[in-house]
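Design request, tokens follow.
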């Protein structure tokens, strides 16, 4: 998975009060990877962090998308969609080639008499 895919996954998951461990579990990355990418997104100004104390008197963080973060999330989503469309088109072309190959093989088979 590319760094852009990791960024998009994290940008998609930060809309709620959470911690890095829960983000990691949700998107299937290690906590270290989430921490690294999240800090990069914060440095870029795409996410801001608010600290608060939850009901159990523990400090937690709320990760918020900045307007720039929302714009980047849209751009990365568009890019991801385009990649998936191209992948779909390649698979459709490959499927058609296989179907044509299959049809040719079946036409060349002559029933034995």
């Amino acid at each position: 998975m590319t760094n852009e895919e990791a960024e998009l996954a994290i940008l998609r998951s930060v809309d709620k009060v959470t911690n890095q461990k829960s983000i990691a579990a949700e998107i299937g990355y290690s906590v270290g990877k989430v921490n690294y990418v999240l800090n990069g997104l914060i440095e870029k100004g795409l996410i801001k962090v608010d600290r608060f104390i939850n009901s159990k008197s523990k400090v937690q963080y709320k990760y918020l998308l900045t307007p720039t973060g929302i714009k980047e999330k849209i751009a990365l989503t568009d890019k991801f969609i385009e990649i998936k469309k191209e992948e779909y088109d390649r698979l459709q072309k490959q499927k058609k080639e296989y179907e044509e190959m299959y049809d040719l093989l079946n036409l060349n088979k002559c029933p034995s008499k």
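Comment from the thread starter after seeing the answer: thanks! The chain has a mean pLDDT of 86.
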